[in-house]
Write a structure and sequence with these properties.
The chain has helices at residues 11-24, 36-43, 73-81, 87-92, 109-118, 131-143, 149-156, 165-171, 194-199, 210-219, 234-237; strands spanning 2-5, 27-28, 47-51, 54-58, 66-67, 99-102, 123-128, 159-162, 177-182, 220-229, 241-243, 250-256. Strand 1 (2-5), helix 1 (11-24) and strand 2 form a beta-alpha-beta unit. It is of the alpha/beta class. The chain has 2 domains: 2-67, S-adenosyl-L-methionine-dependent methyltransferases; 73-256, Vaccinia Virus protein VP39 (Rossmann fold). It comes from Jeotgalicoccus saudimassiliensis. One of its GO terms (molecular function) is rRNA (guanine-N2-)-methyltransferase activity.
Amino acid sequence: MIVTTGGRYNEETLQKARDIAMRYGLEFAMRRKRSVKELNERYNDDVMIVGNDGLSIAPQSCKESVKYHPNFSMVRAKRLLKNENDALVEAAELESGMSFLDCTMGLGADSVIASMAVGNQGKVTALEHSFILYLLTKEGLASYNADNDIINEAMRNIKALHVNYETYLKTLADNSFDVIYFDPMFDEEISKSQSLRTITPVTHTETLSETAVEEAKRVAAEKVVLKDHFRSKRFEQFGFEQQIRKTSKVHYGIISTNVQVD
């Protein structure tokens, strides 16, 4: 991947682009009035653009660039600040001080909400197999300004890792996290949002496996949570108790792992 600046940039943006390239061992290229398409072709590689207004990546495989934005999580975050309910927080029963492992980070929307719910005393780790999404989201979480200190702090507290979740789960000890969370690609299209359409070509689409679920049950001290389309067969296939939400096509499934045996 090549790192460059936007067409118009200042010294701060230039230094940030150089810093990202250095930290990830990537090549930095001065923009020199070249278009992103020209840079794609010149270097035969994906291009990360560090602009004055944020971060984006132009993959060779896509016609559109992928821009970092926390999307609907900002609306959800502001609702949490007003002590309103959030479906994920309720399904996972997240409380201050808990630990949460997001196995499918994407652009990090659910991780941000989880981080707000568990607070500074808690821990949120987010995994992403796609290097493009990992780099974009990790850097976006570290620099995006939500104009709210609590939301910004929640974003900065997330630990993002570039790794396959099944591989990572196997390295963890029993009961390492309170909640393990899966949000795999839906089998049925559920959103027409531009952000989801844009990231689809760069998303790894591993199918949730029996092995991953069994490892998650071992690692989760409290519960394993699955977010999926309400018609998904994965709830029944892997033994999740589907939480019915009559007003939404998105449902959550729960496997409780702290069941006491008499």
